[in-house]
Amino acid sequence: xxxxxxxxxxxxxxxxxxxxxxxxxxxxxxxxxxxxxxxxxxxxxxxxxxxxxxxxxxxxxxxxxxxxxxxxxxxxxxxxxxxxxxxxxxxxxxxxxxxxxxxxxxxxxxxxxxxxxxxxxxxxxxxxxxxxxxxxxxxxxxxxxxxxxxxxxxxxxxxxxxxxxxxxxxxxxxxxxxxxxxxxxxxxxxxxxxxxxxxxxxxxxxxxxxxxxxxxxxxxxxxxxxxxxxxxxxxxxxxxxxxxxxxxxxxxxxxxxxxxxxxxxxxxxxxxxxxxxxxxxxxxxxxxxxxxxxxxxxxxxxxxxxxxxxxxxxxxxxxxxxxxxxxxxxxxxxxxxxxxxxxxxxxxxxxxxxxxxxxxxxxxxxxxxxxxxxxxxxxxxxxxxxxxxxxxxxxxxxxxxxxxxxxxxxxxxxxxxxxxxxxxxxxxxxxxxxxxxxxxxxxxxxxxxxxxxxxxxxxxxxxxxx
Length: 466
Ligand code: ARG
Hints:
It contains 19 helices and six strands. The chain is mainly α. Helix 3 (39-55) runs antiparallel to helix 4. The model is unreliable at 1-5 (pLDDT under 50). Bound molecules: arginine. Arginine is lined by residues 31, 35, 91, 117-118, 121, 325, 327, 329-330.
């Protein structure tokens, strides 16, 4: 038997319709412009579904073989750029299904038994997002490796540490690199946590209530690499929190990369001159010949905006939707694709910049001594040696800083006599704690900045990364 094909209506559901869609209906409805990206996942899902249908006896083995063959050929057509995507067929699912029927006839029309586009798209999209998660998690790990390598090299390279972007305490470039290793490691953990929750298969939820056919959902879930089937069909077709979590993990990671990007912008500014990037990782100006602009860092910082936007966008799309599926959910994909694509770029650019950065050791060491950065060390000395309560030591140190500032010198530039005008019990040994090198070496508390701590942490990281 063959179904009449009323040429002006949709072949997939034309039965009820007397006329085809108006141009605007088709234009606003079609998602093929962006969801064609999921063609591999769609074919993979259909293969698993067809195999299951045959296995439980819903379709014949011959039909299943024809479907398998047809889908493989369609995959080759798409890969070779020979597949003609049609907007009239709305989305990737109907394009592939229609082509299958065109190629293999009757058997193609049986593929959609016990399935709806609602569980189909939820499955395809999970598969796509899972692949993106795996790729991004691997890139995050690569960034961690880059930070650890630079930390090892620069465990003893002193640089200014800031709070409020004002000189605070001397730290080391290595310690600074390891701060980002920690952030990117958590970003990877967040991505993998989200992956674990995503990894349930909605296929077989059908339109929303499941199906009367004796399908094997555990079988299809397993065939598609899921831990098992989702447990509620309404949730299976109607929920997108896996995508929200993915977007949140992307936005948080991008935010971390953006902070480093901002620091690279600051460090490469000639007024700081802490770090140089290779010519190949900077750009020039068409009018100002002297320029070396850190555009890659600026774009990492800039692209963070859209990633935050993609998260907020999806949260907003879903917030008002009564269960289960509504076409609003078709708006879930572009943000996810966009965040995946842009975070891929940002992670790659960051890894390249981190591996390339050439710190100006002398410049950073000099800057580390500016701004009375060892004032805390002086206050700590007063507590340790003169047994002053910390609050009093803070006050005495403040007066010494004011005195030095008034004289236009730094703290070690004050003579012992000048210091004694403020606190008569100070002795010579105070000068031992006033250099940036002494300051960083002293900070050996767990997680502290001391070069020996940084080296120990690098060793720990290498163990974790091995
Ligand atoms: N292109 C659709 C989407 O992305 C597929 C699901 C369509 N389902 C429906 N009931 N119209 O959401």
